[in-house]
Design brief:
Layout: E1 12-15, E2 23-27, H1 33-36, H2 49-56, H3 62-77, H4 98-110, H5 115-123, H6 136-141, E3 154-155, H7 158-169, H8 205-209, H9 228-236, H10 238-248, H11 251-254, H12 259-271, H13 277-296, H14 336-344, H15 348-351, E4 352-353
Antiparallel strand pairs: 1-2, 3-4
């Protein structure tokens, strides 16, 4: 939308209790008195929107920098320096590291308000690179780990989980920009989840199961839940089945002929590490058992191709639904290695940052 200023912008009245028909005194266009004091100058450049933006993102208003730094810290560590990201006022909890919050806010402003510089500085710090092993002595003094003697174990959000699955399959499309995609229906798109179409009036059930924020409400911090539907998605979803099939089809796996090496390749793809000896033994036993089960199983009739289901991502204004281009998921039964790859997707290590 393009909003044009009128030739002669005028000050407006206060709406009593937010009701446009009940008007109070005329209020000059200027910044908030609680932040800038009673002698703040009036805005004179057009509507005042640009002057308001400059006043918000100003070194003389360090609250903005503190709020943003606190939210970046929250996303990286799982909890903010101030635990209430929506309230940094007198009624909020005190920051765990007040001097560090002030210093980071100052460095953020001096660095040209660059979030990329801020994130780079934090993730290269020693505190971010700690492991999550508990120290009984520190736990006794700080049970909630607010002083960050170790790393907090964090659960990935919906977007990161879906993008991780696409990375495992080797199909993640990193193209920037473009039209929205359908996140929940076949044919599945390989684009990053940030480009997913969101219908505010009809949020897909899958996104709700993975704690996607209510798009009708402002949300600074998502709730985190663990429900059976999340595991059932990885067990039964055609998308998860397709990820398992494509993961096993990657060159890193197909180029290896021995079973031990194949297990190591899947661990490298999914967990970014080598398997421990006991994990290799469990994997070999699991695959051998699957081979016998599949060899003795009766022939399976190929399932019919699914029909597209409308509604989950259909705009409410009558336009055509968002549909992705591509082919629907292959319905053939999974091989023993494809089933093993899918089993690895159930591990907590996939959805938790440890």
């Amino acid at each position: 939308m393009v909003i044009e200023d009128s030739p002669a912008p005028a000050d407006s009245s206060v709406f009593i209790r937010g009701q446009a028909e009940v008007r109070g005194n005329i209020v000059p266009r200027r910044f908030l008195e609680i932040l800038a004091g009673p002698k703040r100058p009036a805005f004179t450049g057009g509507s005042g929107r640009l002057e308001l933006a400059r006043a918000i993102a100003s070194k003389s208003n360090p609250l903005t920098a503190r709020v943003l730094v606190n939210r970046v810290w929250m996303h990286l560590f799982g909890a903010g320096i101030v635990p209430t990201p929506d309230d940094l006022g007198v009624q909020s909890e005190k920051p765990s590291h007040p001097e560090m919050l002030d210093w980071l806010a100052s460095a953020f402003m001096e660095g040209g308000w660059s979030q990329k510089k801020l994130i780079r500085f934090i993730v290269l710090s020693n505190v971010y690179q700690q492991n999550s092993d508990e120290n009984p002595q520190y736990t006794a003094l700080d049970a909630d780990n607010r002083l960050l003697s170790r790393a907090n174990i964090r659960r990935l959000d919906f977007e990161a989980i879906r993008d991780s699955l696409l990375v495992f399959s080797g199909q993640l499309d990193g193209t920037l920009g473009g039209k929205p995609i359908n996140l929940t229906e076949e044919p599945y798109s390989f684009r990053r989840t940030v480009y997913g179409y969101v219908d505010r009036g009809n949020l897909p059930e899958l996104m709700q199961q993975f704690d996607f924020s209510d798009p009708d409400m402002p949300n600074s911090k998502r709730a985190t839940s663990i429900v059976p539907q999340q595991a059932l998605f990885l067990m039964n979803s055609p998308m998860a089945v397709d990820v398992a099939r494509r993961t096993v089809a990657r060159n890193e796996f197909t180029a290896i002929s021995d079973d031990t090496g194949r297990i190591a390749a899947l661990y490298s793809i999914v967990f970014q590490r080598a398997p421990r000896s006991e994990e290799t033994k469990l994997g070999l036993a699991y695959v051998d058992d699957l081979k016998r089960t599949i060899a003795n199983a009766p022939a399976v009739v190929r399932a019919p191709e699914p029909r597209g289901r409308g509604g989950n991502n259909n705009p409410v204004d009558g336009r055509a639904p968002v549909r992705n281009r591509g082919e629907k998921v292959d319905r053939r039964p999974l091989t023993e290695w494809e089933q093993y790859a899918q089993a690895l997707l159930f591990a907590n290590e996939v959805v938790y940052v440890n």
